[in-house]
Each structure stands twice: as structure tokens, then as C-alpha cells.
User: Fold this.
Amino acid sequence: MAALARSWATKPGIGRVALLFWFGLAILPLVGSVWDSPSFDYYLFMGQSMLIYAISVLGLNLLIGFNGQISLGHSAFFAVGAYTAAILMNFGGIPYWATLPVAAVVCFGAGFMFGFPALKLEGHYLALATFTLAIAVPQLLKHKSIAGWTGGVGGLLLDKPDPPFGLPLSADQWLYYLCLAVAMLLFWIVFNMLRGRSGRALMAIRDHAMAAGTMGIDTALYKTVAFGISAGITGVAGALSAITIAYVAPDSFTLQLSISFLVGLVVGGIASLPGCMIGGAFIVVVQNSSQSISDWMKETFSLRYDVPAWAIYGTLLLLLMFFLPNGIAGGVVAVRGWLARKFR
Amino acid sequence: MEFFVQQIASGLTSGAIYACVALGLVMIYVSTDHINFAQGEMAMFATYLAWSMIDAGVPYWVAFGSTILVAFFSGLFIQRVILKPLETAPVLALVVCFIALLSIFNALAGMIWSFTIKQFPSPFPRVDIFGNGLVSAQQIGVVAVTLVMLAILTVFFRYTTLGLAMRAAAQNAASARLMGVRVSWMLALGWGLASGIGAIAGMLVAPIVFLDPNMMTGILVYGFAGALVGGIANPMGAVAGGFIVGVLENLVGSYIIGNELKLSFALIMVVGVLLLKPAGIFGRVIVRRV
Amino acid sequence: MAAILEVKGLSAWYGQSRALFDLDLTIEQGGVTALLGANGAGKTTSLRAICNMVRRTGTTILDGADISRKSTEDIVRLGVAHVPEGRGTFVGLSVEENLRLAFHIRRDRKAAERDIEKVFAYFPRLKERIHQQAGTLSGGEQQMLAVARALMLAPRLMLLDEPSFGLAPLIVQEIFRILRRINEDEKVSMLIVEQNAALALELADNVYLLETGKVVMSGPSAMVKDDETLRKAYLGY
Assistant:
């Protein structure tokens, strides 16, 4: 896994592929000006969701993949980010773009704080504590003492922002670019962080915490800060989701959201940055096509029942753990290595 | 005062259920060192099986017994097919597997029985047993079933050679193998037992909270809290922990924080115990090799 | 005398590195064979390989039956009792439970009950501590418990991995005296791995000398005992 991470994070040449990839993403919305279809706005919305999930998975991957701390509670940080943005926009009259850095800071703080108890927990126990966090959060958000701010069970309805400076874009095109810009910025930051000294420290802690400690790495500091940054990134994704959906409600932030992130992480590839993008896209594709997948499965296997998305997620997770433990990105690396050996 | 006694009684009732869940978790933890996040959903699924049988006219206790058996063999099967190949896999892979199982069982239950809530019958009448409105036969029944199960398990582990072999396998797998114990089957047996115990918990709780695919989520968290309070490597402790958590939850819920924050209370208990007393109240500190 | 165990071309690996090279051994029925050699010579590995506890190749024949591909548990069930390095005590179980564990695989319940008494006759110290947690026993007592546990399996062949390890000389002598009695009275064949060569040579009829995973010499123990150059070269005394 470490070798994989190194190859993705530092390989020369990956920069060109990445640039092409981001450029491709940037011109996608322009298709709308040629292809005038009413469903195009929906595809743009899917694109936004993919980018948002990719950012969340990036946050989670930083923690799990690169630092070895398992979290099933990132839906909580996503929720904090979303509510931070929603409350600031609704009650503070703060412009939507300005809520993003605030959400980042608030979630960094929350993650950093949670990082302290997490220091004393490892493996299964950390998974357990964060699992509990994920389950407790929706109930917490509904509580009447903060209902004045959170809108209680009903949540908060927001206004969808218009493109600034009179840009000739539709609202969804603009939001797509907003998500894309934030995603690029965050991926760039994480990429640079992992490439340097702190990245090596994070991975050393993951591979052998005690040895890392004897090398003079302040493991406690790195682990809590990693938790903070990870939560901060996922929080920004939460804020973006509040802005793009223009609505927040407690029941969108359940354990299942955390599981979606985990699915994205595992499908894309543990400790892989491109994997985060793959994972983010994957989550949205399955969510949106679960009905057709279900219909197809009913047809082919002559099932009597609908197959829900969660059954598909679960089965996929199991299969991946058995056959492709490093996800699609890991599979690509493996195939590329195999081809290189084969046609040397 | 009357209210207080009622709260204690209903606390003990939910405590009995948490104790079952905790016991199932301990069973798996002791034999494999894993924390099974799918424990609750497996129990829920088994409860639906029982519901289907009862719905088809099978007498309650027959359905109860056969559900435990089916759950036992499914647990055994899951260990053999899914977890055995991952014996040496990293923790993350196992956590992912448990989460996958959780999703699959939840989705399957929704798919087969729909997400609408169902009434689950109770074998115990809801009559007031002492005529003073404090304790119902239902509550006594739930606690009694848990205690009987605990007694059976104690006898099994203490006085049968199979139980002894399971304990030996859990303590020192290599050495147990050298005594001819088929260790990997003992782990599977642990899963089977855990799954059977979980089914009991599900069938006990379903008449109280109604049957729906998400019914065990909160209960699982309390089961975790119970197992941790009592010591996750200690069956007796886990049962005691389950009862303690049940009573505390009710008292704290009705007197201090209100029912809306009960899950947060469970979160605080889980994190608190993990931080302050990881071995639980009754547990031994386990020294870990590095 | 017939052979109880025949080992042919036994090789073993730990990961990529090979620890045994085509070992051939013959353990005689009712006899005691010693496997001697320095640290890292492959003594413990040989015992583990016989029980299929490491990745290995080669054939092992127990009393005419091929056991090369059997699992550790099945080999034990066929009558090979392995007293492992480090004694393998079940620290959380009582002394009695440690012994009763053998009941799990024994079908002859009555004979097994009698065997407990027999084992206590060999090791009266264990009887005194019958209800004690095995983890609280001294090192010597734990070694006795390990031998007693193996004896409870009613074995045909016992594999003993350094029974003298870390024990006081007096205790070691006591244990070796008991091992001799077990060998004579119970007709249990033994393959014993030892660092304490002098002691093992006293007990054994036959000796194999191992060096870096290969047999360098074998023969009756009297021969090794009398050959000073051999002793000096390989056994260091």
C-alpha cells in the first residue's frame, strides 16, 4: 500500500495526466451550449455531487489511506460543514462562498478535538467510536435546544446562488465550476502535503506508529492534525453540498452517508488521490442508476424483489475486499505494471 | 417513587436486550478479536425470519427455536465463507467487510419485507404482574430469557469439552491446534453462537420497538456500550454492563437529558469507557504485544 | 526395530527463506531420538514441519501412513503430541482444564479419566495445583503441564521442543527422569530437540546432528558421546 501511495503521489508524468483530466472536467459544462437538452441540468447536478463526494472521499482517504486511522464517522463532519454553511447563509446573511473557509475551520476544529480521544484508540476501537458518532449525530441535530438554528427535523431551506459578475452561465453551471475549483484547490493542497515531509510522516505513522515515534515524529500531533485536516476537507464538501442542494436536514447525515464515503474510498482505491475522484463518481453513478441496475437484475436473475442500492454497495465492498483490495486505482497500477513487464 | 421504580424496571428490560447484543459481540471479540458491526443487522434479519414464520401460522416458541437455529447456522456460514479467507487481512479490510454485511442485511430486509414497521408478537402477556402498575409480565419474561440464556452459555463454556475447546482456541490458537482442536471451526462456532444470541435479542426487542429494518441500529450502539462497560473480553461482565447501561440510559433519559439525546449519551459512554477504562469495569487489562 | 516416523526430503520455508534442506529422519518405535545442533540449525523448524505448522515439502510417514498433507489438528489426532517451544500454556485455564482439553478429541472417555490419574502420578506437583490458573504456575511446572497435556492425548509419538529451556538444573533433571519413565512405561516414542546436548544424549538412543538446516551426522548416541572431536565440533563440550 505504501508503495502504491508513493507511486501515485510522486511519480513524474502523473502531472500531465492530471492536468488533462482537470481540463476535461472544466470544459464539460460547455457541452450544454451545444447540446440543448432539458436533462443536461440534471447531469450538471450529478457532476456537482460527484465532485462533492470526491472531496469527502479525499478527506477520508487522507485519514484512513495515508494515516491509518479508520473513521466511520465522517458523515458527522460533513454535517457540521453543511450546517455551518446553512446557518451562516440563513442567519448571518454571509455570502455562500465565504461560508466555505468558515466550514473548513469549524470542521478542522471539530476533527482536531475528536482526534484527541482517537489517539488512544486503534483499529477496531476507533472504528467503533466513530461508528457511534455517526449514529448519534442525526439525533443530536434534531434536538429542540438548537432547533432555532438548525430548523430541527425539517432542516433549513436556502437560496440557490446566481453566477456572479453577470457571467453567462446557468446557476448549475456556475455551481459546477465552484465545486470544480474547490476540488482542484483541495486536491492540489493534499497532493503537495503528501509529497513532502509531512506526507512521509503521516505514512510512516500508518505503517508503524512506534517506529515513526522513535524517528522523532511527533505522532500525537500529526495524528490529531491529520484528523483535523481530514474533517476540514470533508466539512468543505458538506458546505458545498448545502450550497448546491440549497437544503440541509438531519436525516441526510446518517451512518449511510459515512458508508457511502467508505464505498467511494474502497472502490477508488485506498491511499490513492485519483482513486478519490473515481470513488466520488462511482457513488453518484450507483445512487442514480440503482433503479436501472435493480431492474436489470430482476430481469436477468428473475428476482421477485427490487434490489436496493445498499445491497449493491455491500456486495461490491465484499467483492472488492476479496479480489481488488486496492480498488480501481490499485487495479490500474497493477495492470500497468503487468503490461510493462509483459512488453518490455 | 413509583415513576422511579418503573424506570428501573424498564431499564432492566432494555438492559436485558443490550446484554444479549453485548454477549454476541463478546462472543465474536473473544474468539477472533473483531468487533462485528453487522451484529445488529444480523439480529434484525433473523427477527424478520421469525416474523415470517409466525405470520405463516407457526407457534411462537417453535418459530423462536427455529430462528435461533437458522441464525446459528448462518453465522457459521458467514464466518466460513466470508471471514475465514480474510483471517490475515488488515483491520480496515475487516471493518469494510462488517460494514458491507450491515448494508447487505439491511437492504435485503427492506427488499423482502419492505421498510414499513410491523407488529411482532410477544409470548409474554403485558399484564401487570404485582397489581401495582410497576412491573409487567413482559418485562419479567425478557429478563428471564436473558438470564436463562446466560446460564446455558455458562454451563456450556464451563462444563463441556466443546466449550473448553472454544476457550482454549480463543486464548492460544497455536497451542490449541497442538491439542487437536480445529481452531478455525471454533471461530465459526463463536460466530454461530453470536448470531444465535443476536437473534434472541432481536426477537425480544421487536415487540417493544416494532419490527423494521433499522430497529437494531440504536440498540447495537447500546450493546457496544454495555460490552465496553463490562469489559469486551468478558461474557459475564458484558451482561452486567448491558443491564447497567439499560438502567442508566432510562434514568439519565427521564431525569437529566431527555429522550432525544439518548444516543448521544451512548456515544459519550462508548468514548468515555474506551478512554478511561478500556478493559471495562470487570475486565482485565490485556497487555498487547508490539 | 520398526520405524514409527519416517521423514524423507523434508524442506521448510519461512516466507522466502529456506530453513530446512532435504532432511531425512527415522524415529524408531519405542525409542528416543534426539535432534541436536546450535541455534538456528533448524531443530524447532523440523518439529514444526513434521506437524505441518510451516510451509514445507517432502514426505512424512507415521507408522506406514502418509501424513504429509494432513493438517496439524489431524496429525495430532493420529497420535503425534507436540510439546511446543515456550510450553503453549493456556494461561487463563486451570491446570485441570488444561488437561481436560484432551477430552475434546478423545472418544474413550473412561480411559481418558484414568489417564488424568496416571498423569498426576507422573507429576504429583500438578495435582497439588489442580484448580490453580495455569498462568500462575512456575516455569518448571508449566513445562510439566505441557508434557502432561501431551500425554493426555495418549500419543504414539511425542515431539518435545527444548523441555529444558529456561529451567533450573534440578527441575530439568526431574523432568528428564519423568520423560524416561514415560518412554519406558507408556511405550511412547520420542523425538526431542535440545540445546542441552549432554542431557539429551543421556536420554536418547539415536542422535541427529543438524547444522544450518541439514543433517551433518547421525547414529547411536553412544557413538557421539564417545567421540570427543565430534562433541567438541558440534556440541561444544
Observations:
- Chain C has a mean pLDDT of 88.
- Residues 169-186 of chain C form the longest helix (18 residues).
